[in-house]
Design a protein that fits this description.
Helix 1 packs antiparallel against helix 2. The protein folds into 2 domains: 78 residues, no CATH class; 62 residues, no CATH class. The protein starts with a helix and ends in a 16-residue tail after the last strand. The longest helix is centred in the middle third of the chain and has 53 residues. The chain has 3 helices and 6 strands, in the order H-H-E-E-E-H-E-E-E. By secondary structure, it is α+β, with helices and mostly antiparallel strands. Strand 1 and strand 2 form a beta hairpin. Strands 1-2-3 form a 3-stranded antiparallel beta sheet. A 3-stranded antiparallel beta sheet has the order 4-5-6, with no helix packed on it.
Length: 160
């Protein structure tokens, strides 16, 4: 915060106080009117500096709220990211594999680097392997047979 705005406001208020004290010693009406005008100018200057300081304070509060929000988002993402590990599922093909979460699943490495959690979806599977795609970035990966996240178990249906 620019402390000069606050210092200027204080200086202006002190000047106004000094002018008000001087008014008591004046004898003629012209001198009094002149000092009253001077007092009004000092008060206006003090108000102007106070408004500038208030505006700066408001801007700093907004910036602080934005930084706090970004910090909370980063902390939340770090908590999510800790639940996954980078895994090579085929030569030079990487996914983020869930750690201990059920059902086991993979996240798109491309989206993960952009701090988005996008589960790779199975497109088709054969004896040769499987093809997965990301619905967010449209990335597709081919995985040889035996490297898939595991069987899908549907609750209450007995289907594997």
């Amino acid at each position: 915060m620019d402390m000069s705005a606050i210092a200027s406001a204080v200086t202006s208020l002190r000047a106004a106080a000094d002018i008000a004290k001087a008014l008591a010693t004046l004898k003629s009406e012209i001198e009094i009117q002149s000092k009253v005008i001077e007092l009004q100018q000092a008060i206006l200057a003090a108000q102007s500096h106070a408004v500038a300081a208030h505006s700066q304070l408001f801007s700093l509060e907004q910036e602080n709220r934005e930084l706090q929000r970004r910090l909370e988002e980063a902390e939340a993402w770090n908590g999510t990211a800790a639940q996954y590990e980078l895994t090579e599922v085929a030569p030079r093909v990487f996914v983020y594999k869930s750690r201990g979460q059920q059902p086991e699943h993979w996240l798109c490495a491309n989206c993960f680097e952009d701090k988005r959690r996008s589960i790779l979806q199975l497109q088709f599977e054969s004896e040769m392997g499987a093809k997965y795609s990301c619905h967010q970035c449209k990335n597709e990966i081919a995985v040889p047979s035996g490297r898939t996240p595991g069987p899908i178990r549907y609750r209450d249906s007995g289907i594997v």
